[in-house]
Amino acid sequence: MFELEARAEPSRLMSWLSPLLAVMLMLGGGVLVFWALGKDPVEGFRVFFLNPLKDFYSLSELLLKATPLMLCAIGLAIGFRANVWNIGAEGQFMLGAAAATGVALYFDGSDSSLLLPVMIVAGALGGAAWAAIPALLRTRFNANEILVSLMLVYVAQLFVSWLVFGPWKDPDGFNFPQTRMFGDAALMPALLEGTRLHYGFLLAIAVLIAGHAFMNRSFAGFRMRVAGAAPDAARYAGFSAARMIWVGLLLGGAAAGMAGMAEVAGPMGQLTDKVGSGYGFAAIIVAFVGRLNAFGIFLASLLMALLYIGGEQAQQYLNLPSSISMVFQGMLLFFLLGADVFINYRLRLRRRAPRSH
Amino acid sequence: MDAGLITSMLFATVVAGTPLIIVALGLLVSEKAGVLNLGAEGMMAMGAVAAFAVTHHSGSAWLGVLAGMGAGMAMALIFGVLTLSLLANQVASGLALAIFGVGLAAFVGKPYEAVALQTVPPIRIPFIADLPIVGEALYNQQALVYFSWALFWGLLWFLYRSRAGLVLRAVGESPSSAHAIGYAVIRIRYLAVLFGGAMAGISGAFLSVFYTPMWAEGMVAGRGWIALALVVFATWRPLRVMMGAYLFGGVMITQLFIQGSGLQIDFPSQLLSSLPYWATIVVLVIISRNANTIRLNSPLSLGKPYRPDA
């Protein structure tokens, strides 16, 4: 039998190999899933994992899908590093989308080039304001931020649904729950001709770089890392726990809000009640698989985008529900969490203790 | 307000509170053993879809409940392997379970979305169901409602009167002491986690087979998370879990009754529907305000991985 033996110190190598191992296991698991569903595993693999990479346009769609994931995940990672568990990015995303939509609708018809920057700021503020609720309740009343931020996801969904069914409903929209289409000045310009990829992608890259700088080059980021890795040391050094909760949640909310803005001003072009497409939850997986690190998050968001698009392909060509994406995404995180055991432990063959009589 | 309305609101409150009681009491047991499983929403979703599918194919609601229980336990087993055997972070693993369970349930349940089940008739308890007002509300209910009461009394006895319950609580307070006096901490925690999964599965089954006999993606609607909040709110005590669950049931039902009453109130239905979630937040705030209440009542090792030194 094998047993786990604690390593003297965590293995840096394993902390990078573990996501790769998890991806391998997920691909293997994916083949098994297709086989179990009575589909040709080779065909399934090709449609799900290779189709989304087959040409230039497909790749641009991959980057488009990865944009909101990157934005949400980098914000979450800042909090997660300090053990601030904001899991309500989905709600902050929707509030950011709603705030940006508010600006777009209010200045409808304007062709000012300032409109987009103002919408970005509004999106960030909307998301941050929604995240401020769990931050306030946690720091003032000690209420668990996991549960509060999650409850607010449901509230945000109902709030957006009220907006698009009620006051913001497009008067010429045949009663569909959606707002008017935004004017050109409120839409993200295309980044590459002939694709849907837009400037939001550059925004995401910029935020990734800023997030990296914050976490690794600033004193505030250092404090947050210490608080996560060694809470007692942080307390002893006099770092304010309340400030870290505020910073973690506000930055997470702002990033998610920007992602929501980039979605309504990007591929959607309007606000609908389907605006939250699970990006906020998927970003939790992205943050973990990316090792709470900006470059890792970049790669992980591409991988998760691949799983999303693979699901759409599977729906189209294999006649499977597109929710198969979520199955693969969940599997990936399970395998990662399991493989992470090797960061702190190694496998050892258990030698039988000599029998004593 | 006439007596009929009181009876029907009371009846509906009990029905709405029941799934919360079942899942929250299951979570209570695993938390008492020191394991925080945030995946309740995922386990409930899988329980709901498995129960629905089996009931649909077999025609037996009871086989369905059994299948829901099995599905919940299977999900809990994944969580157990990750956190207890592989020592993964409980918060991250629980989140993974919630995301995975909801996704897998949506995937498995796709073919059942347009299917309806026969409603299961309630069980009428002779004589006491004839009591005025409360009789019809409390004693002409679904069998799982009676099950939730039995579960409550059973747990009270188990946790506070039985030796096994004492061991379970010891494991949650101080796993190393429990290990030192010879208890198999990991095995006990596995059992507690599986029990939590089984109850979450039954609770999901109640939703899809009895409460609204249909399956829809997202039908659990946050009840797994509300149950997690309930356990904190109840400061890990079964009686308060039960009272809290009915309180939430009451909030859910009141907003539905207002929406359905045709009262001309100028308040959007969506915002009314968000009341139970706001109520959860408010209640969490009230109970958490005093950090000592939480610290003194929560199992000491809650959420912390434990590995016995071989």
From TrEMBL, chain A:
Keyword Methyltransferase: no
Membrane-protein topology: Multi-pass membrane protein
Keyword Transmembrane: yes
Gene Ontology MF term list: transmembrane transporter activity
Main location: membrane
Pfam families: BPD_transp_2
Keywords assigned by UniProt, alphabetized: Cell membrane, Membrane, Transmembrane, Transmembrane helix
The name this protein goes by in its record: Sugar ABC transporter permease
Coiled coil: none
Transmembrane annotation, as ranges: 16-37, 57-80, 87-107, 113-137, 146-165, 197-215, 278-311, 323-345
Localization in the cell: Cell membrane
An annotated GO cellular component: plasma membrane
From TrEMBL, chain B:
Protein's membrane topology: Multi-pass membrane protein
Domain of life of the organism encoding this protein: Bacteria
Localization per record: Cell membrane
Stretches that traverse the bilayer: 6-28, 35-55, 61-84, 91-109, 143-160, 190-212, 218-236, 243-263, 275-292
A Pfam family per the record: BPD_transp_2
Main location class: membrane
GO cellular component: plasma membrane
Keywords: Cell membrane, Membrane, Transmembrane, Transmembrane helix
Entry's Gene Ontology molecular function annotations: transmembrane transporter activity
Name used for this protein in its record: ABC transporter permease
